[in-house]
Structures are given as structure tokens and as C-alpha cells.
Design the sequence.
């Protein structure tokens, strides 16, 4: 069966042509231990015809089938350009546990990419601040790499990232690579001091002051656990940042990815099609507890 | 506009059975309950039967459906996938207007948005909708308030109305016209429309007073819900009466929420099951390893009534999500079928 | 027509259910609109029966354990093995025990009893949930002359006054709960007596929230107040005062002191007097109470029966007194004589290390109920018969596959004695057989000829042997929605009697050191140890939801107590009982429970293993069991 046969009916003048209903099979080429309970899986499509259609935007997600266990939604960390297809997953339940038990050569099913993605064109020329806590870096990675690939289009690019311990920090080799890009500022912190750690100690919100985060002509991408998220938002707003310039991604239980099953409905919005990327202003007005 | 005899109608049903899977009203002999179900070869649709107890969406969006079958050979690391949907074209013969309105809602939702739902499309493709003007409402019917009955306005291929001496057949689509042309049906005179109007009037007379006395009550309630004027205590009272059975969503012609689960069969074979779901269940919005963003039961109830009766949600169906069939009222162990909820809100407004 | 009518098998209400089936698989569910009890409604269980009936966790072939593993076997092989091995045991000496299932049809139950008595010659027979229902049956027999409900569930729809004692019917038998709610709306007075504020209590006209363990006292106080009114009015028709036990009863009631009542139960006598006025004026009275594993203790049931007799309304065509069973055929299992005999208890034999028990024959049993696991594992032979796989299989030496409830003809007797017929509507996956066929095959191999060709013939044998079923046949039951078994088959039916009562003012077993009264509570989406519900998709998800929020289980306490203990919702606490057992568990703060009480849903594993095991009476006392505990912040 060709790609067009699978997908022709589902695409409708969106310019996007994702894999909608029938999963495409991908091979697990490589598995990397990222942190305790977090692994990165590098993937490639078995059907080469799919590759040109599978175009992603930063901030989008896919539905991933672990055969025999089920399907789950996961954000896409690779950059839209010149990057390997991969996903980074923490084992939190039945399906993700089964994923973690797989080995290279095993197959997965993949649908997507779905979701609106981060704005890219509209933020050109601005400063970007990425604020991430723990696995909150996963959905931001794509955008960071993409922004660094287009370094000349932006002002300051700052990453504030923290985790419980040094071992919990994700994408450490990536971060070392990013640091080599001219003008990339990174502030990494862990919650408590530990032997061998030379960097910052403390919580992520404290880095905002330290990094002298700008407010004018700046957008902030914030992802992390609720406590961190709320503290960061409070600080950014205090500094005078507009609610429209704070951007985050929401996580909800998803089943279909195409706005039909309604599991991810929050008030009037569906996270899978209207989101998962929202400005803080939108999040605040969604009308339901986040 | 044509006038057909019962014999003509039966011939049409028999003829369509050769090329289509024909569904129609049938009476269960043991219980007298009416279902809209697949007709066996010798069976004909019972157009005089009462309103089907279950919505016709069962045919297009079944309670439980296998959408994918796969097997994974862990040793060889090989997977085989098999599509499970895609069937014979369907004829829905003798649909009630409320069920037709439900299908229109589902169409707009599953087919008319950014993405098309392939599974629903597979059921809906090439299907033929033949409506039957309602003559006998139930006690909890209120389609006269939601403008979905007792006669259908649009969206059908053919529309039947039982008159004293046959069926008045109106055409609603090219497909319907093609059928009429192919059979050379006898044209009906204009006066037949007046006869139909009389049938409809007689039916409206039989509606419960609640539905007849003020047809604007639904839109009033919609206004209240959309603008958020419904008091928290009302939602709480509604939540208290919820037995969390999910029945309202299962029998609602326009409820479209579903769940997807991969179920292991024997050995390494697996099926992807799509089952109807309800936003009244607490596990519905749960996230893996995390909190539930919508916990108290009144919030969950609230979500459903908001979906059925708010302007903002109506946009996705291009009409109110409620089609006035009243089935939720019939199956609710509490007292919070939609007509009653509207009553609560209405009572609050008048107080 | 793909819709086939049957009776829902997931609780004792006996709701009318259509299954949409193509003959091989169940595709969906619909309610039966004209069913007199369920009236077109089903609960979350009934609506998801299709998921259960589609599970792949079925037993599809006979199995025999060989070298520690179960292997497939033919029916003949398995039957021969069972006959040979059980033949080595002396049933008459209580060496063979049988655990029947309260979900099996009457036909299966009847055949199993015959197998036990005629073939195995054993008296050791039980259904597992008998303690609670046995109390109900004994008390009803004494008071009304027959072991079954007085009146039926449809009377809820017309009665003036409805009293619900204990249990959250809205959770355990939701459709009865719905009917009660409807009765309240049409104007019936709906009164709940329960120590926690259940959903049913919230929907009631009046809720008496008594202190734990004092239901019987409150009921007796209500009787006292009612009797006082009756003495004044005199305008009554029946000869209540000539009934056996009347004098003792009334004299005992007179001793109730309002001060002691209030101290013990927390309820003022004035409030009860007001209630008695309304009860007195009612023309018809329906009383419901839970029966079975989470049923009431003997004292409370006797108080209920006495009150019912005293109302002088039980002969009204709209009155009823119904022990509401949680399991579909609990009443039928008792009718078929599966409830065990005095002095012969299967669980007793299992618990007693010196009992002669050598072999156990178990039918479709919830594995959550496995107590004495080591003892069972050490038995010489364990036979398991069931439709669905469960943990009992791990202990079994021989396994027989049974049909699910929609895969064979069978009758079921629900809470109010309504006998209903379910016809086979779907094929069994694999080699599953109706229970009676398996038992008949065993009997035949052992040299007995029963000669039944179908379930209708088994039912004929039932009508011969069980007087209350004398006028029923499958043919009669196939029309309409069941027939209540005939109470007039019991000679004493209609002769009412009072139970002897003793008025006591139960003191809370709590003390300064162990200030909380811990009780077994109800969990949402959890029935019968979840043996069945966890094989579904959506109800299982709902159950998992609770465990996600409280992965180590929870103990429900009120906000005031939480504040005193300085704990918040989901915080972990240490729970220590007066016998020294302890566990770590999360707090669930709920305004629905009273200060000084704590509830643990009985599906929490530690609850069973660490707590209840030590409190054997907790099972027999059912809903009224109280364990004094201390709760400490971790």
C-alpha cells in the first residue's frame, strides 16, 4: 500500500499530510539511556515513501504504538531540519514500560505528526528564553536546535534548565554541542549539591534573575512540573513579560491525535489539534483547571 | 415528489439489499423493543415501528469496533498490520429525523473538520439515508424544540411520509433523484404536501406539554449555559444525581467521544478496539502517571451539557449538539437526562 | 435482529439487558425498556458487559497440572482424573470441600449440590458470601416464615415510605438506587440509615448518620417511638400484639433510654419520634438492606425484621422487605441449597490446620477471596471450574472451562426472588460447557445417571426438588421478565413473628490510644474483588484511576480529623490497629464521613492481608465490623 493511499482522505487543505489512522512502522535503530527511567529511541521508517511526507514542526507530537501494549502520545524532540528522528520517553505506565523493554531492531507504529507546533516565523528577530525542568526539556529540544540552526535570525538565545540531580539532566551531549554555538547562553542547575557537580545548585526559577533574562522583544518557552511552571511564570510576569510572550505545551491523555476522541478537551480547546502549544494567556483563559 | 405504495417501498428495500447492507427498524419479538439494525435477507424495514430505542449511530459509530489487527513477532522483530474497517455501502432505511440530525452532527464532526476520521468515513461512504416522518413521539421527546423533527428538512437522500393511501417520497439529493428516475415513480400532486403537514401537526399534538408549551426553552437554556449564568449549586445537584453509568453518552445520537485500547488476543496477535466513551467518567481525562484535570463529578456532567447546549460547542456541529430524541432521559438512573437538566436551568431562571 | 434479551449477571438486581451479538461475539449492549425493575436503565457494569464478554482471559479447554504446569487435556481425561482422585477421599468425613459460585445459574448450582451430596457424599459446601446472607435468610424465615424477600423491587415505585439501612445502594446496586431516587422525586419519603454520607444518603429525604455499630439500636428506638404512637391511636387492623415474641419485644423497647441512645448513636430521640410520626402515617413501607459479603450483622437484621412486622404494613401490596444481594444469583444459590450446613464450613475447614480436608472443588470464584492460600496449595487435589481465568487457576490441579452467562441457558434468582431465564445467545470460545454438564459428566464417570439433555430438563428436576420453584418451567419463564418463586410453598409463610431483642448501647471500641473506628468502605467501580471488572476496558480504567490517585490505597477521614492530624489529601499516614498490625496508606479527606471514623475500601490488598485476616469477625459482621486504629502522620 502506498503512502498516498493511506493518507489522501485525511488531509484537507492544511498543507500538512500526517499519518492519521493506520500506523506506519518504524524501526528502532538505537536506544540511548538518557537518565534514570528515561530513554531516547532513534527511529527510521521501514517504508521510504513515507519519509518525504513526514515533515515536522517544533512542538508537535506523534502517537506511538508499542505493539502488544498500546499507543501513547509523545512530543517530538528532533529539529525539523537535519536531525535524526527520535523520541525521548520516561516510563510512567503500562505502555511506556513496554517501550522501555524493547531492543534495537524492534518495531514501533507511528502516527502523526500532530498538533500546532511552536511559532517560528513570527518570533524571528527576538530573544528566546527556554526554561525547562526535568523532562520538560524534551518538547523544547526541537525548537532549541532549530533556533540554533538559524542563529542569525534571533537575538539572545538563553537556556535555563534544571533537574533533581546531575544524572537526571537530559541531552547532556546535545547541550555541550549547543554551547559551541556563538552566543548561546546556558544556565544549568540541580536541586541539591552533589559530589562532582561544579555547576549551579538550586531551583530553576532562581536562574531567571541570574541570567538577567530580558523582557523586551523576548519570548519565553516554559516547560516543566506544575510547581516550577507556576513559579517561573510568576517571576517572568513580575519582570514585566507579557502573557502572550510566554509559551508552553500542554500534556493531556490522547487517543486519536486528530481531534475526534475528545479525551484532551479542555473547555473549548482540543490539545491535540488546537495545541499542544499555547501562550500563557491562552492557558489562563481555557476555563478549566490545568 | 412522488407517491409510492407500500409495495413500491418494499420492492425498493429488497432491491437495495442486493447491492447494499440495508438497515431498518425491527421489533424484538420477546420485548416489543425496536432496534434499527441490519435486515436479514427476507426481512423488510418496519416503518410503522416506534422510535428505535438505541440511536442509529450504532451503525456508523458502534459501541465497540475493531479498527486494526496486528501481530508482532518479538523474535523476528517483525510486525504485520491489517486494517479492520471498510465494508459494504449501507442504506439506513426509515431513519427518524432526530437520528438523521444526529448523523449530521457526527458527519460535521468526524468528516467536516481539519482531519477526517477514516473509520467513520468507511461506514459513511456511499451510504444512502432514507428518512421516515415521525408520527408517534415518546413521553420524553422534544425534537420540536431542537428543530429536528417530527419531519426532516434536509440531509436525507429520500424522505418518506406515511399518508392514508401510500408514502409521500421527497428527494433530498442527487443520489435520491437518481433512484426516483431509475424507477419512474409516480409523481405526487401538490396537495399531498398539505396532507403531510397534517400528519406532522397530528404528531406535534401528541408531544408532551413540556415540549409544546414553550418551544424556545432550549435556546433560553443554551443562552444561560453559554454565558455561564448557571449557578454552581445547580451543577452540584446535577452531579449528585449522576450514577456514572455513561448511558447518556452511549445513547446520544450526537455524542462522539471514544476510547482506543489495544487488546491482546491469543499469542502475539492484537486488536485495536475503539469503544464509545463518556466524559462523565473520571478516568476519561486522566493522564499517565499524573493528576486528573477534571475531578469532581459535577464538573464532568457540566462538560457534557456544555457540549450539547452551548453556542461555542454548537459551532462544530453547525447546530445544537442535542437533537431532542430524549433517549438520555429514558436511560438515566438519576434524573438528569437532557430535557430535565434544561428544566432545572429553566426553573432557576424563572425563580 | 442482532439483539438478544438476557439478564445482566453483574449484581443481584437482575436488570434486563440486550446483548448485540452476531452469534460468535458480543458486539454491544442495550437496556430492556420494558423490564419491570430496570426499566431501560443499566449501570456502568451492565453497559460494559460487552467488554467483559470479549475478554481474551477465558478458560477455553480442560487443563491438567503436570510437572507444575497446566497442560491442555480432553474432557474425558480431566473428568477421569477428578473421579479417580476424589474417589480416594472420604467425602462423608469432610475430606472434600466444594465452593460454589453465587453467579452460577440455578441449574449449575442444583447440579453441583447433587454432585456434592450424591457423588462425593460431602456436607462441606458453601458459596463464600454466605455469612451475611445466611443471617438475612434465618431472620426472614423466623419473622415471615420463608427465606426470601417480602414483596419485590417494583414496590419501590409506589411505596409511601422507604427505609434503606446501610450500604451505598447507588454504588452497589445502582439501578435500585436509581429507582429509589425516582421514588423520592415522586414524593415518597426516602430515609437512609448509614454511618457515612453516601450518595444514596445525599439523595434521601432524611439521613440518620448514626455512630458506627449502632444501627440496631437506632432501628429499635424507631420501633419504640412507632409503638408509642400505635398505643395511642389503636386504629390498626392486624393483631400485631398477638404475634409471637410481641411482649418480650415491646418490653425490651420500653427500656430504651433517650440519653443512652443519644450517647451511643449520636441521634436524638426527638428526631426519631418525628420520623416515627411519618412512618406511622405511611400506608406502604419498603425496607431495603444489604445482604451478602458486605451485609449486616444478625442483630441489625433482626431489628429490621421486627420493625417491619411492627409497622403492620407488610401485607400492603406496595410494601416490601428486601435483602439486596450484591451477587447475581446469591438468592438462587441459597434456594438450591448451596449455602452450607451447620457445623460444616469450607472456610472453617481451610482455616483449621487439623481439619480432615484433602480436596477442594471450586466454581468461578473471585480470587480476591482466597484466604488460607498455603492450605489450599497443600491440598491433595484442587479442581477449578470457571469461564474466566483467575488466580485460583494457579492453585488448581484440574481446570474445567465453563460458559459465560450468555453462552448457555440458565435461570437466575435475583434479590427479590424473581427467577429469570437467560437463553444462550453467543457461542462459547473453545470447549466451554455449562456447569451442569461438567458435573453430570463427573457423576456419570462415577457411575451415576442423571440423564439431563438440556438446561430445561435440569430445571424440571429443580421444580421437583425445590418446593418454591414447583410451578416454574423454562417455557413459562421465557415469556415476560421472570416470575417470583412461590412463598406459599413454605407452610409457615404469612405467620409473622418477632425476634427476641436485647437492647444494648454499643460503646465504640475505640479508646484514647486507638481513637479511630476503622470500617470497610465501598470503592467506586469495584465489585466482587474486581475479578470481572478488571477484564473490561473502561470500568477497569475507572478503577485504575482510583489507584493512580492513591497508589497505596486510601483511608477516608473527615476534614476536621485531617486538620487535627495535620495531614492533607494524598499524604501518607501510618495506621496501627489495636492488635499491633500496621500499614502505610494515603489519606483521602472527605466531608462524607464522621469525625472519629475511617473507611478503607476493601479492595486494598494490605487491608485484606494485614488487617482483616486478624479480625475474622470482620467478615461475619460485614458492614458493622469495626477495628480500632491509630492514625499517625508519617
Sequence:
Amino acid at each position: 500500500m502506498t503512502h498516498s493511499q493511506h493518507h489522501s482522505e485525511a488531509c484537507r487543505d492544511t498543507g500538512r499530510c500526517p499519518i492519521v489512522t493506520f500506523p506506519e512502522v518504524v524501526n528502532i535503530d538505537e536506544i540511548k539511556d538518557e537518565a534514570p527511567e528515561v530513554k531516547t529511541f532513534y527511529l527510521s521508517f521501514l517504508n521510504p515513501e513515507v519519509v518525504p511526507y513526514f515533515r515536522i514542526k517544533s512542538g508537535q507530537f506523534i502517537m506511538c504504538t508499542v505493539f502488544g501494549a498500546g499507543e501513547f502520545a509523545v512530543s517530538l524532540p528532533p529539529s525539523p531540519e537535519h536531525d535524526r528522528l527520535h523520541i525521548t520517553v520516561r516510563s510512567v505506565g503500562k505502555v511506556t514500560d513496554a517501550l522501555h523493554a524493547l531492543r534495537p531492531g524492534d518495531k514501533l507504529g507511528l502516527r502523526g505528526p500532530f498538533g500546532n507546533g511552536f511559532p517560528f516565523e513570527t518570533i524571528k528577530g527576538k530573544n528566546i528564553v527556554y526554561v525547562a525542568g526535568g523532562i520538560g526539556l524534551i518538547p523544547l529540544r526541537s525548537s532549541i536546535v532549530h533556533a540554533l540552526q538559524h542563529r542569525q535570525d534571533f537575538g539572545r538565545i538563553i537556556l535555563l534548565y534544571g533537574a533533581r540531580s546531575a544524572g537526571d539532566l537530559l541531552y547532556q551531549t546535545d547541550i555541550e554541542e549547543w554551547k559551541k554555538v556563538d552566543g548561546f547562553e546556558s544556565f544549568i542547575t540541580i536541586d541539591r549539591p552533589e559530589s562532582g557537580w561544579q555547576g549551579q545548585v538550586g531551583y530553576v526559577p532562581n536562574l531567571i534573575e541570574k541570567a538577567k533574562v530580558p523582557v523586551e522583544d523576548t519570548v519565553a518557552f516554559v516547560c516543566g512540573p506544575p510547581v516550577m511552571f507556576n513559579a517561573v511564570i510568576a517571576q517572568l510576569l513580575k519582570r514585566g513579560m507579557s502573557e502572550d510572550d510566554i509559551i508552553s505545551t500542554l500534556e493531556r491523555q490522547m487517543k486519536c491525535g486528530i481531534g475526534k476522541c475528545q479525551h484532551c478537551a479542555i473547555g473549548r480547546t482540543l490539545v491535540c489539534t488546537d495545541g499542544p502549544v499555547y501562550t500563557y494567556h491562552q492557558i489562563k483563559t481555557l476555563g478549566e483547571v490545568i | 415528489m412522488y407517491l409510492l405504495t407500500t409495495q413500491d417501498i418494499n420492492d425498493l428495500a429488497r432491491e437495495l439489499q442486493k447491492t447494499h447492507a440495508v438497515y431498518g427498524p425491527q421489533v424484538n419479538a420477546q420485548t416489543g423493543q425496536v432496534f434499527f439494525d441490519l435486515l436479514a435477507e427476507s426481512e423488510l424495514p418496519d416503518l410503522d415501528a416506534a422510535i428505535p430505542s438505541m440511536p442509529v449511530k450504532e451503525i456508523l459509530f458502534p459501541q465497540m469496533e475493531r479498527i486494526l489487527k496486528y501481530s508482532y513477532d518479538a523474535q523476528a522483530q517483525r510486525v504485520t498490520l491489517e486494517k479492520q474497517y471498510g465494508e459494504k455501502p449501507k442504506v439506513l432505511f426509515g431513519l427518524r429525523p432526530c437520528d438523521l440530525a444526529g448523523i449530521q452532527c457526527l458527519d460535521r464532526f468526524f468528516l467536516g473538520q481539519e482531519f477526517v476520521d477514516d473509520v467513520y468515513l468507511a461506514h459513511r461512504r456511499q451510504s444512502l439515508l432514507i428518512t421516515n416522518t415521525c408520527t408517534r413521539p415518546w413521553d420524553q421527546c422534544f425534537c420540536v424544540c431542537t428543530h429536528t423533527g417530527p419531519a426532516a428538512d434536509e440531509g436525507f437522500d429520500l424522505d418518506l411520509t406515511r399518508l392514508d393511501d401510500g408514502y409521500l417520497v421527497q428527494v433530498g439529493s442527487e443520489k435520491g433523484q437518481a433512484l426516483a428516475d431509475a424507477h419512474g415513480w409516480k409523481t405526487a400532486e401538490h396537495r399531498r404536501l398539505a396532507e403531510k403537514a397534517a400528519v406532522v401537526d397530528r404528531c406535534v399534538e401528541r408531544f408532551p406539554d413540556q415540549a409544546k408549551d414553550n418551544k424556545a426553552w432550549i435556546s433560553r437554556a443554551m443562552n444561560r449555559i453559554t454565558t455561564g449564568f448557571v449557578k454552581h449549586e445547580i451543577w452540584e445537584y446535577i452531579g449528585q444525581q449522576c450514577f456514572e453509568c455513561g448511558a447518556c453518552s452511549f445513547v446520544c445520537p450526537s455524542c462522539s467521544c471514544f476510547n482506543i485500547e489495544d487488546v491482546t488476543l491469543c499469542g502475539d496477535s492484537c486488536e485495536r478496539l475503539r469503544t464509545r466513551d463518556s466524559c462523565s467518567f473520571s478516568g476519561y481525562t486522566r493522564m499517565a502517571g499524573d493528576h486528573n484535570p477534571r475531578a469532581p463529578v459535577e464538573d464532568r456532567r457540566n462538560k457534557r451539557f456544555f457540549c450539547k447546549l452551548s453556542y461555542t460547542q454548537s459551532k462544530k456541529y453547525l447546530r445544537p449538539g442535542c437533537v431532542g430524541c430524549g433517549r438520555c432521559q429514558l436511560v438515566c438512573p438519576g434524573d438528569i437526562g437532557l430535557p430535565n437538566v434544561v428544566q432545572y436551568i429553566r426553573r432557576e431562571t424563572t425563580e | 435482529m442482532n439483539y438478544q434479551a438476557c439478564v445482566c449477571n453483574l449484581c443481584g438486581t437482575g436488570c434486563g439487558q440486550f446483548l448485540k451479538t452476531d452469534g460468535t461475539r458480543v458486539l454491544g449492549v442495550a437496556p430492556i425498556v420494558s423490564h419491570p425493575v430496570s426499566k431501560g436503565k443499566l449501570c456502568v457494569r451492565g453497559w460494559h458487559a460487552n467488554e467483559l464478554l470479549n475478554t481474551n482471559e477465558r478458560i477455553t479447554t480442560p487443563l491438567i497440572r503436570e510437572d507444575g504446569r497446566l497442560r491442555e487435556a480432553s474432557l474425558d481425561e480431566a473428568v477421569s482424573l477428578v473421579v479417580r482422585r476424589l474417589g480416594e477421599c472420604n467425602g462423608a468425613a469432610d475430606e472434600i470441600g466444594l465452593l460454589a459460585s453465587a453467579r452460577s445459574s440455578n441449574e449449575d448450582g442444583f447440579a453441583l449440590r447433587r454432585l456434592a451430596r450424591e457423588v462425593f457424599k460431602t456436607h462441606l459446601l458453601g458459596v463464600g458470601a454466605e455469612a451475611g446472607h445466611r443471617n438475612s435468610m434465618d431472620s426472614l424465615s423466623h419473622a415471615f416464615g420463608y427465606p426470601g424477600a417480602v414483596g419485590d423491587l417494583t414496590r419501590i415505585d409506589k411505596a409511601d415510605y422507604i427505609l434503606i439501612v446501610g450500604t451505598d445502594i447507588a454504588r452497589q446496586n445502582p439501578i435500585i438506587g436509581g429507582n429509589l431516587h425516582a421514588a423520592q422525586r415522586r414524593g415518597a419519603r426516602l430515609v437512609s440509615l448509614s454511618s457515612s454520607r453516601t450518595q444514596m444518603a445525599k439523595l434521601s429525604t432524611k439521613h440518620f448518620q448514626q455512630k458506627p455499630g449502632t444501627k440496631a439500636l437506632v432501628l429499635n428506638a424507631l420501633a419504640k417511638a412507632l409503638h408509642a404512637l400505635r398505643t395511642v391511636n389503636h386504629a390498626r387492623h392486624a393483631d400485631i400484639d398477638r404475634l409471637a415474641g410481641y411482649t418480650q419485644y415491646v418490653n425490651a423497647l420500653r427500656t430504651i433510654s433517650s440519653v443512652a441512645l443519644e450517647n451511643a448513636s449520636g441521634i436524638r430521640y426527638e428526631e426519631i419520634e418525628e420520623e416515627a410520626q411519618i412512618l406511622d402515617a405511611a400506608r406502604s413501607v419498603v425496607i431495603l438492606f444489604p445482604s451478602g459479603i458486605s451485609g449486616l450483622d444478625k442483630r441489625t437484621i433482626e431489628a429490621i425484621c421486627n420493625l417491619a412486622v411492627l409497622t403492620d404494613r407488610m401485607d400492603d401490596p406496595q410494601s416490601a422487605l428486601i435483602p439486596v444481594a450484591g451477587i447475581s444469583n446469591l438468592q438462587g444459590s441459597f434456594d438450591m441449597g448451596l449455602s452450607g450446613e451447620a457445623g460444616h464450613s469450607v472456610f472453617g475447614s481451610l482455616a483449621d490446620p487439623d481439619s480432615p480436608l484433602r480436596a477442594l472443588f471450586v466454581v468461578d470464584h473471585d480470587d480476591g477471596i482466597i484466604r488460607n492460600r498455603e492450605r489450599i496449595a497443600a491440598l491433595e487435589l484442587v479442581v477449578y471450574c470457571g469461564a474466566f481465568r483467575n488466580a485460583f487457576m494457579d492453585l488448581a490441579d484440574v481446570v474445567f472451562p465453563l460458559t459465560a452467562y450468555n453462552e448457555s441457558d440458565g435461570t437466575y434468582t435475583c434479590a427479590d426472588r424473581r427467577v429469570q431465564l437467560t437463553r444462550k445467545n453467543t457461542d462459547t470460545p473453545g470447549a466451554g460447557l455449562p456447569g451442569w454438564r461438567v458435573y453430570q459428566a463427573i457423576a456419570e464417570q462415577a457411575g451415576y445417571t442423571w440423564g439431563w439433555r438440556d438446561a430445561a430438563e435440569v430445571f424440571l428436576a429443580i421444580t421437583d426438588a425445590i418446593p418454591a420453584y414447583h410451578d416454574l418451567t423454562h417455557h413459562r419463564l421465557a415469556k415476560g421478565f421472570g416470575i417470583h418463586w412461590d412463598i406459599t410453598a413454605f407452610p409457615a409463610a404469612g405467620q409473622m413473628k418477632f425476634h427476641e431483642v436485647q437492647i444494648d448501647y454499643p460503646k465504640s471500641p475505640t479508646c484514647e490510644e486507638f481513637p479511630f473506628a476503622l470500617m470497610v468502605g465501598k470503592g467506586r467501580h469495584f465489585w466482587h474483588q474486581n475479578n470481572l471488572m478488571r477484564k473490561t476496558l473502561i470500568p477497569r480504567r475507572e478503577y485504575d484511576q482510583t489507584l493512580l490517585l492513591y497508589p497505596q490505597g486510601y483511608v477516608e477521614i473527615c476534614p476536621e480529623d485531617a486538620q487535627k492530624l495535620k495531614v492533607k489529601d494524598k499524604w501518607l499516614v501510618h495506621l496501627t490497629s489495636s492488635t499491633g498490625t500496621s500499614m502505610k496508606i494515603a489519606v483521602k479527606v472527605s466531608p462524607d464521613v464522621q469525625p472519629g471514623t475511617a473507611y478503607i475500601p476493601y479492595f486494598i490488598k494490605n487491608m485484606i492481608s494485614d488487617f482483616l485476616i486478624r479480625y475474622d469477625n470482620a467478615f461475619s459482621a460485614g458492614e458493622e465490623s469495626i477495628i480500632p486504629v491509630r492514625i499517625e502522620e508519617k
Notes: The two ends of chain A are 42 Å apart (CA to CA). Chain A touches chain B at residues 9-10, 12, 14, 20-23, 25, 65, 67-72, 92-93, 95-96, 105-107, 109, 251-253, 255-256, 258-266, 268, 273, 288-290 (CB under 8 Å). The longest helix of chain A spans residues 137-149. Residues 3-114 of chain A form a domain with the Elongation Factor Tu (Ef-tu); domain 3 fold (CATH 2.40.30.10).
